[in-house]
Amino acid sequence: MSLDDLLKRNSGLEIAAAVAARQVTIGEIRTGYLAAIAERERIVKAFAHFDCEKFLASTLVVGPLEGLPVGFKDIIDVAGMPCECGSPIYRNYIPRGDAPIVSMVRRAGGTVAGKTVTSEFATREPGPTTNPRDPTRTPGGSSSGSAAAVAAGFLPFAIGTQTGGSTIGPASFCGVAALKPSFGLVPYSGIRATSWTLDTLGFYGRNVRDVAFLAGSITGQDLAVNDGVQWMPRIGVARMKVWEQISADMSEAIVAACDMSKSRGAHVVSLPVHPIFENAYQAQFLIQDFEKARCLAFEIDTHSALLSATLEQAIRDGWSIPVAHYVAAIDAAKRAQAASYDLFREVDVLIAPSASGAASIGLETTGSPNLNRLWTLLGLPCVSVPSLSDGSGMPLGISVVAPMGDDRRALRAASWLQETLSGGARC
Amino acid sequence: MSLDDLLKRNSGLEIAAAVAARQVTIGEIRTGYLAAIAERERIVKAFAHFDCEKFLASTLVVGPLEGLPVGFKDIIDVAGMPCECGSPIYRNYIPRGDAPIVSMVRRAGGTVAGKTVTSEFATREPGPTTNPRDPTRTPGGSSSGSAAAVAAGFLPFAIGTQTGGSTIGPASFCGVAALKPSFGLVPYSGIRATSWTLDTLGFYGRNVRDVAFLAGSITGQDLAVNDGVQWMPRIGVARMKVWEQISADMSEAIVAACDMSKSRGAHVVSLPVHPIFENAYQAQFLIQDFEKARCLAFEIDTHSALLSATLEQAIRDGWSIPVAHYVAAIDAAKRAQAASYDLFREVDVLIAPSASGAASIGLETTGSPNLNRLWTLLGLPCVSVPSLSDGSGMPLGISVVAPMGDDRRALRAASWLQETLSGGARC
Q1: Cβ atoms within 10 A of the Cβ of A42, count?
Q2: Least Cα separation, residue A351 to chain B (angstroms)
Q3: Partner of B314 at 20 to 30 A CA spacing, among A278, A363, B37, B277?
Q4: How far apart are CA B242 and CA B244, in angstroms?
Q5: CB pairs under 8 A, 24+ apart, for B237-240?
Q6: Chain A residues contacting B, CB < 8 Å?
């Protein structure tokens, strides 16, 4: 494959293989990416911090990622780079060390490409990033820059985070793949926190196989998805009340995903939703709001004038939640987490909408995280599969959800689904 | 009670009540503590950072803690104070903001007294702190300064952390009370991490009731222990293999705790230990070592010459653990966590040794965390009860362990046990 084709396809897995086979050099790859960034960053605005010389200077590193550049959401500490959290409160703040996830990427052979735009403290107030598929639309949030950088072909990989729907939502809106891993798979340390019960890292790549390669390389675990595995996942569809919020296009996309999976031979069943999960969905709002207030107490107590009005109000509201309600919500969450294995008694994975619909026009909001709240609360691995789109060509992600701790299954089934939806491997 | 008596008893609960009743002023209290620090800090060496003027300057704050000073282990970010993590790598490092736990203490009316000594990155290499009960002995680690500051009467309260036995061990050695809360009760954010699966905060006070008051004030949850509650806990004793490591004195202390509890009317039973918990105990070592290597990767990759030889080797060893072994250990941990509720089918709480014995002579090691590893891994709330001692008068802590999420029960039963052991409330 030519350098141009490699960069256009932007598959980290293919590029790493080409570098390993000495078909291209990492220098050529970097120069190519830099050209893409030079051409379109003015519009996309994916980066909060980007240093052109450092981007080109870093050399090949030993490891599966072969020196490929990885973007990090600007709430993740990288030694010697600003970490501004999308807030003037942390303007020019330069952490002293790398967050463990950064070290793990470096040890896997990746290099730090720069910091990608986050909404204000990874909450709701948007940053400047636009959707690479249509600059009049939101890229989603809060990992706006990470999703957009991969979608725009600026980088093969990026790291984001998710507390409500902050990784999977932007993946859906921008048309890239993402994994929100099982809670605890990788360390959320050296990273700005907004909820100690919910905060999770997220991995972005162009396709599910790229994401699996990235997650496998970073963790050293056997997560990579192999070609040609003959496996028919048993797929469940559990229509929660929140599905009432999805658009007609997304509803059709789910039906299409089910139909195409059935056509390929998969077993697809509707599952009833136990009230325990509806309760947990409601609990997620309360837990996120309550814990956000604690995690941002320093900022509101010492720099309230530098917070957006929206966030300032959200923090105050969070402090006014009765503690007993929070305790009850945590209890509801724990019950649902324990019951989550029951969701997979008769199926291997669930599929669900990655967002309520396609990215909306306008940059004032980053879209609703509601479709992702439950999976984040339950801590289940969730992969957003790109491939489908609405009538106007805007992407619609389909989530594949697996049991707690089985990120491999989520990735395998998601890769199967991506093949199915893209028509690449019909039976 | 006179000011001198109040300071001598060093009960944060009593002092807060006296301040609230205007029997003493917070200024008098601070001046009293400062005198104690001036007299003995030279020997105890509890503080990594202490600013006398700031200590005296801060005024009464609204909230249950009534302006009382709280010490924070020197791996916890406090805005504007050094956070050196017991390592020259972070010499003069001053974080930009407070960790959420610091904000929560401030909002509960507490003030930051200073930073207390930690072993190197909260691992095994000791800091300079000595045991206030005997300066030739270790105070335990890694929360050495937090336990010692409370034991020495320098502060009514301090915050530590625990990954193996770093909160409960020092409490046992120094003769103070401590709570290692349920995993997730309070946010471990803005705090140096060494294990994302295990790291937990810890609360120190002179007595169990003080610790309950501190934890209740910070979280807003109903954790305070009331006087005169007529309750007979059903107590279980589960002798794990690791109990073979305890000293004759500690063994006698456990027997004494059982006998005195029975005499007071409690139901005390021996419980069998399911192999799932012995497996989980073994898994704890591996998880801690594996994750420590990831959490300290930046330090070994960029500043290895500034690490102790012990820690450097531990990090290298952690990177050499096969990932598959780690995955199996996490699986063993999750199984044991799910099974942990079974431990409490017939009893309210377990009692167990807080350490293998009394603090040993010498400052070269901080003692073994082994007796605490399982409780930390299971995430169960654990309270160390002071009151007993060995033949030479050195303290021996008894741990009270409750089911996941029931910190209140752990504190109530521990308070009951403390009354029982101190003979203060015989039936």
Answers
A1: 8
A2: 25
A3: B277
A4: 5
A5: B237/B268, B237/B269, B237/B270, B237/B271, B237/B350, B237/B351, B237/B352, B238/B270, B238/B271, B238/B272, B238/B273, B238/B277, B238/B343, B238/B350, B238/B352, B239/B270, B239/B273, B240/B273, B240/B277, B240/B278, B240/B281, B240/B374
A6: 79, 90, 93, 96-98, 100, 102-104, 106-107, 184, 186-190, 193, 196-197, 219-222, 291, 294-295, 297-299, 301-302, 323-324, 327, 330-331, 334, 338, 404-405
Asked if the Cβ–Cβ distance from B103 to A301 is below 8 Å, we say yes
The type of residue at B284 is: Q
User: What pLDDT band is residue A229 in, cutting at 50, 70 and 90?
Assistant: low
Distance CA B220, CA A346 (A): 42
Is A368 strand, coil or helix? coil
**CA neighbor of B192 nearest in space, from A59, A97, A17:** A97
Confidence band of B61 (pLDDT split at 50, 70, 90) = confident
CA–CA distance, A182 with A180 (Å, rounded to integer): 7
Q: Are B78 and B122 in contact (CB under 8 A)?
A: no
Asked if residues B189 and B102 have their Cβ atoms less than 8 Å apart, the reply is no
Q: Across the interface, which of B184, B222, B297 has its CB nearest the CB of A103?
A: B297
Asked whether the beta carbons of B75 and B160 are under 8 A apart, the reply is no
Q: What residues are paired with B351 via a beta bridge? A: B400
- DSSP H or E segment with residue A395: strand A395-401
Cite the DSSP H helix spans in B120-167. 144-151
pTM above threshold 0.90:
yes
Report the alpha-carbon angle B169-A193-A364, nearest 5.
170
Tokens found for residue B358: 């009394």
pLDDT in tens, A341-381: 999 999 999 999 999 999 999 999 999 999 999 999 999 99
From the list A96, A50, A57, A58, the residue with the least C-alpha distance to A74 is: A50
Both tokens of residue B308? 């102790």
Q: How far apart are CA A419 and CA A414, in angstroms?
A: 9
**Domains of chain B listed by start with CATH number:** 3-219 (3.90.1300.10)
For B349, the token pair is 């709480």
Beta strand A111-116 with A69-73 is: parallel
Contact B150, B214 (CB under 8 A): no
What is the C-alpha separation between A103 and A101, in angstroms, rounded?
Answer: 5
Mutate to test the interface with B, among A87, A196, A201, A299 (most CBs of B within 10 A): A196
pLDDT band (50, 70, 90) for residue B414: very high
Side chain identity, residue A228: G
How far apart CA B418 and CA A356 sit, in angstroms, is: 55
d(CA A143, CA A129) in angstroms, rounded, equals 10
pLDDT of residue A12: 98
Using the CB atoms, write b or e for B13-38: b if 16+ within 10 Å. bbbbebbeeeebebeebbebbbebbe
Q: Residues 6 or more apart from A31 whose CB is under 8 A from it?
A: A56
Edge-to-edge strands of the sheet including B267-270?
B47-49, B111-116, B69-73, B157-162, B200-205, B177-180, B382-389, B395-401, B349-353, B234-237, B267-270
As for the ipTM of the complex, it is 0.97
User: What beta strand segments (E) does B111-194 contain?
Assistant: 111-116, 157-162, 177-180
Three-state DSSP class for residue B393? coil
- Percentage of chain A beyond pLDDT 70 is 98
Task: Mark yes or no for CB contact A220/B323 under 8 Å.
Answer: yes
Contacts of B187 in chain A (CB under 8 A): 193, 196, 291, 294-295
Angstroms from A50 CA to nearest CA on chain B? 21
Rounded to an integer, what is the distance from CA A173 to the centroid of its chain? 11
